[in-house]
């Protein structure tokens, strides 16, 4: 059984001054199939234009086990 999953990333600035912030930061989504196998899926840039937020949607989650009783 495979389900879809959404992941939201948001950078919250706390205790700093706006003029000290970088123009952007890069976040990355990785997929781990086990402890030794990690794969980069995608990188995205967060900045003031996207309110320091991004969302990956409809990601396949193959770790969910579904049982069907009949």
TL;DR?
By secondary structure, this protein is mainly beta.
What does this molecule look like?
- The chain has 70 residues and is mostly beta strands.
- Helices cover 0% and strands 51% of the residues.
- The chain has no helices and four strands.
- It has a two-stranded antiparallel sheet with strand order 1-4.
What attributes does this structure have?
single chain; 70 residues; two-stranded antiparallel sheet; two-stranded antiparallel ribbon; 4 strands; 51% strand
How would the blueprint of this fold be written?
Blueprint (H helix, E strand, L loop, with lengths): L2 E8 L13 E9 L5 E10 L5 E9 L9
Antiparallel strand pairs: 1-4, 2-3
Mean pLDDT: 85
Largest sheet, in brief, is: 2 strands, antiparallel
Task: Count the beta strands.
Answer: 4
Beta-strand residue percentage:
over 45%
Write the H/E string, N to C: EEEE
What is the helical fraction, as a range of percent?
under 10%
Strand order of the largest sheet: 1-4
- List the total number of helices: 0
Shape: elongated
Low-confidence stretches: none
Query: What is Rg?
Result: 17 Å
Broad structural category: mainly beta
Task: For the record, give the distance between the C-alpha atoms at the N and C termini, rounded to a whole number.
Answer: 16 Å
């Amino acid at each position: 059984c495979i389900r879809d999953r959404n992941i939201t990333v948001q950078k919250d600035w706390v205790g700093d001054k706006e003029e000290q912030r970088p123009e952007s930061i890069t976040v990355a989504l990785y997929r781990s199939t086990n402890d030794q196998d990690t794969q980069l899926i995608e990188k995205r840039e967060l900045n003031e234009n996207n309110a320091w937020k991004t969302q990956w949607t409809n990601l396949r989650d193959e770790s969910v086990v579904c049982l069907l009783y009949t």
